[in-house]
C-alpha cells in the first residue's frame, strides 16, 4: 500500500475536491507511515461551526480513500446544524372563521360608534312633557309607549348621524377631532354607512308604528326628513342651521307629548324652543373657539358668525329661557316648580361660563363633567319632580 504524500499548503487540490484544512500558524506534519511521529488527534470542531460543517463532506471523502494509518479523520456522520426555525413547531395560521369573527366585532364596534352612544341621553327629552304634566299618559299604555318613543328617536338619531357623516366625509377627514369617526377614518366603508342609515331609519319607523295612532309616526318621519335636509343643505345656511338644530330638540319633546297623549302647553313649547336655541348657539361658540381660523373650512356657516355675536346671542337666549320657564312654573300653580327656577338659572349660567372658559367639541359633555353644574341639575330635578313624589 502506498503511503499518502504529506499535506502541503503549496500542493494544489485536485479538481472538484477541496484541499485539506490547515490551521494558520501551525506546522504541517507528515502523516503516519512516512517516518514521522503520529500526530495527536485533533479536537473536533463544535457542531455549530459553519466552516467545519461545510468541510465535513470533503473530509469524509478523503478519509475513505486514505490509508488506515492516517490521523483521525473527520467523522462522516457529522452533519450541518439544523436551523432553530426548523426545529421549532410552526405556528398555525388563524383560521378563516377566527378572522371573520374578529372583523365582525370590529365592524360592530364601528357601527356603534357611528350611532353616537354619548348623544343618546338627548333622547330623554321625549319624557319632558309627561314629567312636566306629572303623568305618564291617559291610559295604561303610557310607560310602554314612552319607551317605544325613546327607542324610536334613538334609532332615528343614529340614522341621522350616518347621513351627516356621509355628507361631511371630506371635511371630517381634515377635522382635528372628527377625523377619528369610523367613516372618516375608513373603519366603515361608504356602502356600509349607507346600509346602516337605511337600517336604523327602518327600525325607527317600525318602533314608531307600534305606538297607537299616526301622530307619533308623523313626528318621527318629520324628524328623519329634517335630519336629511340639515345634513345636505340647511347646515350651510347661517341662522337657518341654528333653527334646524333647535327644531331637532323640540321634535323630541313634541314626540313624547304625542306618544303619551298629553297636549303640550304654549309655555312648554316656548321653553323647549328657547332652550334648544341656547344650546345650539353654545355649540357654535365652542366650535368657533376650538377651530379658530380654520372654522369656516370645516363648517361654512361658521364663517358668518363671530365670537362676540354668538356670546351676545347666548346671553339673550339664556335670559328669555329662564323667563319663559318662570312663566310656565307660575302657570302650574305649584310652588316647587317655581322654586326649581333658581337651580335652573344657576345651571344655565354655569354652562354659559364654561362654554367660554372650557370649550369642547361636544358641549353636551359639560352637563355631566362639572360638579357644580351636576349639583345644580340634581337640585332642579328634585324640585321639578317634587309634586309627583
Condensed summary:
The chain is mainly α. The protein contains 17 helices and no strands.
Topology:
Blueprint: H1 50-65, H2 84-87, H3 96-114, H4 128-133, H5 142-167, H6 169-174, H7 182-185, H8 190-209, H9 215-232, H10 240-259, H11 266-291, H12 295-298, H13 307-332, H14 335-339, H15 341-357, H16 366-369, H17 371-385
Helix pairs in contact: 5-8, 5-9, 5-10, 8-9, 9-10, 10-11, 11-13, 13-15, 15-17
Could you please describe the fold and organization of this structure?
This protein is mainly alpha-helical. Among the domains are: 122 residues, Orthogonal Bundle (Tetracycline Repressor, domain 2); 125 residues. It contains 17 helices and no strands. α8 runs antiparallel to α9 and α15 runs antiparallel to α17. The N terminus is likely disordered.
The DSSP helix count reads 17
- Gap from first CA to last CA: 121 Å
User: Structural class from helices and strands?
Assistant: mainly alpha
Query: Uncertain spans, ≥5 residues at pLDDT below 50?
Result: 1-19, 21-38, 40-92
| Morphology call | globular
What is the radius of gyration computed over CA atoms, rounded to a whole number of angstroms?
A: 41 Å
Q: Residue share in helices?
A: 55-70%
Element-level helix/strand string: HHHHHHHHHHHHHHHHH
Tell me the strand percentage band.
under 5%
Mean pLDDT: 78
The main sheet comes to: none
> How many β-strand stretches?
0
Amino acid at each position: 500500500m502506498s503511503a499518502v504524500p504529506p499535506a502541503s499548503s503549496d500542493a494544489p487540490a485536485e479538481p472538484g475536491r477541496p484541499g485539506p484544512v490547515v490551521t494558520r500558524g501551525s506546522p504541517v506534519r507528515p502523516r503516519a507511515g512516512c517516518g514521522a511521529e503520529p500526530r495527536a488527534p485533533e479536537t473536533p470542531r463544535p457542531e455549530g461551526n459553519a466552516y467545519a460543517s461545510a468541510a465535513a463532506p470533503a473530509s469524509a471523502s478523503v478519509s475513505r480513500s486514505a490509508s488506515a494509518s492516517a490521523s483521525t479523520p473527520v467523522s462522516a456522520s457529522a452533519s450541518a446544524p439544523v436551523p432553530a426555525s426548523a426545529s421549532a413547531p410552526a405556528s398555525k395560521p388563524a383560521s378563516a372563521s377566527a378572522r371573520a369573527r374578529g372583523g365582525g366585532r370590529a365592524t360592530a364596534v364601528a357601527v356603534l360608534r357611528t350611532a353616537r352612544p354619548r348623544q343618546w341621553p338627548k333622547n330623554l327629552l321625549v319624557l319632558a312633557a309627561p314629567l312636566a304634566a306629572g303623568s305618564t299618559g291617559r291610559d295604561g299604555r303610557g310607560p310602554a309607549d314612552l319607551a317605544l318613543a325613546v327607542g324610536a328617536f334613538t334609532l332615528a338619531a343614529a340614522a341621522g348621524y350616518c347621513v351627516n357623516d356621509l355628507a361631511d366625509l371630506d371635511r371630517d377627514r381634515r377635522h382635528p377631532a372628527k377625523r377619528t369617526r369610523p367613516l372618516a377614518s375608513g373603519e366603515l366603508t361608504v356602502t356600509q354607512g349607507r346600509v346602516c342609515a337605511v337600517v336604523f331609519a327602518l327600525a325607527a319607523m317600525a318602533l314608531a308604528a307600534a305606538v297607537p295612532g299616526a301622530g307619533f309616526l308623523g313626528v318621527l318621519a318629520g324628524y328623519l326628513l329634517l335630519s336629511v335636509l340639515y345634513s345636505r343643505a340647511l347646515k350651510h345656511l347661517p341662522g337657518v342651521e341654528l333653527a334646524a338644530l333647535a327644531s331637532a330638540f323640540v321634535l323630541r319633546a313634541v314626540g313624547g307629548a304625542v306618544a303619551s297623549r298629553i297636549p303640550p302647553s304654549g309655555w312648554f313649547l316656548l321653553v323647549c324652543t328657547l332652550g334648544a336655541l341656547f344650546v345650539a348657539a353654545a355649540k357654535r361658540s365652542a366650535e368657533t373657539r376650538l377651530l379658530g381660523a380654520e372654522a369656516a373650512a370645516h363648517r361654512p356657516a361658521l364663517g358668518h358668525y363671530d365670537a362676540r355675536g354668538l356670546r351676545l346671542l347666548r346671553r339673550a337666549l339664556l335670559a328669555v329661557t329662564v323667563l319663559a320657564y318662570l312663566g310656565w312654573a307660575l302657570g302650574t300653580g305649584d310652588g316647587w316648580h317655581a322654586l326649581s327656577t333658581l337651580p335652573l338659572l344657576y345651571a344655565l349660567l354655569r354652562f354659559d361660563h364654561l362654554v367660554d372658559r372650557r370649550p369642547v367639541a361636544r358641549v353636551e359633555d359639560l352637563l355631566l363633567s362639572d360638579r357644580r353644574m351636576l349639583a345644580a341639575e340634581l337640585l332642579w330635578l328634585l324640585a321639578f319632580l317634587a309634586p309627583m313624589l
